[in-house]
Design brief:
- The complex is a heterodimer of chains A (336) and B (279).
- Chain A has 336 residues and is an alpha/beta fold.
- Chain A has a domain of 62 residues.
- Chain A contains 13 helices and twelve strands.
- Chain A has an eight-stranded mixed β-sheet, with helices on both faces. Chain A has a four-stranded antiparallel β-sheet with strand order 2-1-4-5, with helices on one face.
- In chain A, strand 4 and strand 5 form a beta hairpin.
- By secondary structure, chain B is mostly helical.
- Chain B has one domain: MetI-like fold (Orthogonal Bundle).
- Helices cover 75% and strands 0% of the residues of chain B.
- In chain B, helix 8 runs antiparallel to helix 9 and helix 10 runs antiparallel to helix 12.
- The chains are: A alpha/beta (336), B mainly alpha (279).
- At the A-B interface, helix 3 of A face helix 8 and helix 9 of B.
- Chain A: The complex is composed of two ATP-binding proteins (NikD and NikE), two transmembrane proteins (NikB and NikC) and a solute-binding protein (NikA).
- Chain A: One of its GO terms (molecular function) is ATP hydrolysis activity.
- Chain A: Pfam families: ABC_tran, oligo_HPY.
- Chain A: It is found in: Cell membrane.
Chain lengths: 336, 279
């Protein structure tokens, strides 16, 4: 059940990377909120800042990267204001992170059972034996055959799918309220992908947690999520319920994305996707999508569009919808 | 028991490791049972039997003062192996934690420790060893301290450079994102993954410590003369080589060579054995 309470709210997040070439504005002015029990899919092409957003949420952006502005409010607490020590109570306990490339995220010298047990030990006052039993139980829960024996295995002895299951077990061992899956099925074959997705969904539903699913697969979002957010150049350009989005996407970029799926062409018109993402080193003034937008207007080149509230829970960041919403007031005002 | 069986199985599959293990075992047995194995006391000089070539009574011959070379070679394992093992262990105990801390807390602390290591390593090793031993006084305990002191910067550097690169690995980042504490990340993630090159170096240094001890004794700064020690035995025998009595230097030299080889082979095996990916 989707509650009405907001669990996580990201306000005006800016994460920059200070490089020799200049300032790379990977995330700039990102707005996003996740309600309790909601499963939000964040979609965007490579380099649009999805992973950096996930890292910013747990405040793990390292030099040369830095969160320069914004708030990440989790249950009323701004995570960006906490010290490392205070953050530890949230990481892994309140917010679980499943990363892509599972094998690389596991310590090669520690048995996977012990790795899960260690994460459990870090947040619970239990002894080693209890933690180990919990780890085996978690492995069983993520559908690992012969969990008792598998817990004794080292990461290199596992297949990609098994390692990913271990990562999920690791992220869920403390029953977090928010699960962030950052491209969790990357590099797995299609059958395993769907198993892993089913597993994540199943567990999120069982534990009543919320989830952010970061992916570039629209199909996965259509199947699993209740809400969708489209990311482009470090901004959310469109956000709304999945059904409404797939019925009629608003933002020109979203329309293009959907058109790219052959089986789901929603309009007869064929829109060419020209060019690529604007470089985060030199973002244009105005709308970030102006370089590729077929409907680009003069105003797009000068003024950055604000997040417009076009329908119930439905926001889009585009000047095309300006007139339609003028009498409603902008979404930003409503959010504030 | 299971561990023991696993160990012996791996050892039998690795020929080099097996030979190394055998050499170390024989050396240890020599050290423990020296008085039983050796037919004579190590410092028992029979003047009329001096400079005898190897024969049935003295299988390695006798030296200038008439001491039995075989008995002395056997007894010397006690001193040389003690110095090698404890010297290396002590330097590991000093070097690893400092290297780990220097890498974990980069910045000023890391800089200062590394510059101190630079200074220590800028000295020629042997000269520094001579200086240390002559300041502290030449006995076994001080030679161990000197060896630890000389080797510690090497381990420090190894551990530091490894930790610096491992710090950036995704699994360390993942551990942090899972809320693990600093200490746990240091000792569960960083340290075990950074010990590989240190293990190799330690096994080589074990042999190197014996050579250094021998070198110190050779110039008279090590173990005092009548005491059986390979280096000083070579020193005593060296002038005799010219006159054809090669045995009193040759056998202790061979003993050093074999022991060093044994430690190096076993160290190499140990490195593979402890790495779960290559077992």
């Amino acid at each position: 059940m989707i509650g009405l309470k907001t669990l996580l709210q990201i306000q005006d997040l800016h994460t920059y990377f200070y490089l020799r070439k200049g300032i790379s504005k990977v995330v700039n002015g990102l707005q996003l909120s996740v309600r309790e029990g909601e499963l939000l899919g964040v979609v965007g092409e490579s380099g649009s800042g999805k992973t950096v957003t996930a890292m910013s949420v747990v405040n793990r952006v390292r030099m040369p990267g830095k969160v320069v502005k914004g708030k990440v409010i989790y249950q009323g607490q701004d995570l960006l204001k906490l010290s490392e020590e205070e953050l530890r109570k949230y990481r892994g306990k309140e917010i679980g992170l499943i990363a892509a490339n599972a094998r690389g995220n596991l310590n090669p010298l520690v048995k996977v059972g012990n790795q899960i047990a260690n994460v459990y030990l870090a947040h619970n006052k239990v002894n080693k034996k209890e933690a180990w039993e919990k780890a085996v139980e978690m492995l069983r829960m993520v559908g690992m055959n012969d969990a008792l024996r598998r817990a004794e295995a080292y990461p290199h002895e596992m297949s990609g799918g098994m390692a990913q299951r271990v990562m999920i077990a690791l992220a869920l061992v403390n029953s977090p309220n928010l699960l962030i899956a950052d491209d969790a099925t990357n590099g797995l074959d299609v059958t395993v992908q769907s198993q892993i997705m089913d597993l994540i969904l199943d567990i999120v539903n069982k534990q009543g947690a919320s989830g952010i699913l970061i992916t570039h697969d629209l199909g996965v979002v259509a199947q699993c999520c209740s809400e969708i957010a489209i990311m482009y150049c470090g901004q959310i350009v469109e956000k709304g319920p999945v059904t409404a989005f797939f019925d009629e996407p608003k933002h020109p970029y979203s329309r293009n994305l959907l058109n790219s799926l052959p089986e789901r062409r929603i309009t007869q018109e064929r829109i060419e996707l020209k060019g690529s993402l604007s470089s985060p080193l030199s973002l244009p003034t105005g709308c970030v999508y102006q370089t590729r937008c077929p409907y680009v207007m003069d105003v797009c080149r000068k003024v950055e569009p604000s997040m417009l509230h076009v329908d119930d829970n439905y926001n889009v960041k585009c000047h095309l919808y300006q007139e339609k919403t003028e009498n409603r007031g902008s979404a930003n005002e409503k959010l504030a | 028991m299971l561990y023991l069986r696993d160990f012996s199985y791996s050892l039998r599959r690795n020929r080099g490791g097996f030979i190394g293990f055998l050499i170390i075992m024989i050396t240890l047995l020599c050290a423990i049972f020296a008085p039983i194995i050796a037919p004579y006391a190590p410092e028992e000089a029979i003047v009329e039997d001096s400079r005898l070539a190897p024969n049935s009574d003295h299988i390695f011959g006798t030296d200038e003062t008439g001491m039995d070379v075989f008995s002395r070679v056997v007894h010397a394992t006690r001193i040389d192996v003690t110095i090698a093992v404890f010297g290396t262990l002590l330097s590991l105990l000093i070097g690893i934690p400092i290297g780990l801390a220097a890498a974990y807390r980069e910045g000023l602390f890391g800089e200062i420790t590394m510059r101190i290591a630079d200074v220590l390593q800028a000295f020629p090793v042997f000269i520094l060893a001579i200086a240390l031993v002559s300041i502290l006084g030449n006995n076994v305990q001080n030679i161990i301290i000197a060896i630890a002191f000389l080797n510690a910067p090497i381990y420090m550097r190894f551990v530091r450079s490894e930790v610096l690169s491992i710090k950036q690995r995704p699994y360390v980042e993942a551990a942090r994102c899972a809320g693990m504490s600093n200490l746990k990340i240091m000792f569960k993630e960083l340290l075990p993954n950074s010990l590989r090159p240190t293990m190799v170096q330690a096994s080589i240094n074990m042999g190197w410590a014996i050579l250094l001890t021998a070198g110190l004794s050779f110039i008279g700064a090590g173990v005092r003369v009548p005491t059986a020690e390979w280096g000083s035995m070579i020193a005593i025998g060296a002038p005799l080589i010219i006159t054809g009595q090669w045995w009193s230097s040759f056998f202790p030299g061979v003993a050093i060579g074999i022991t060093v080889l044994g430690f190096a082979l076993f160290g190499d095996f140990l490195r593979l054995y402890l790495d779960p990916e290559r077992r």
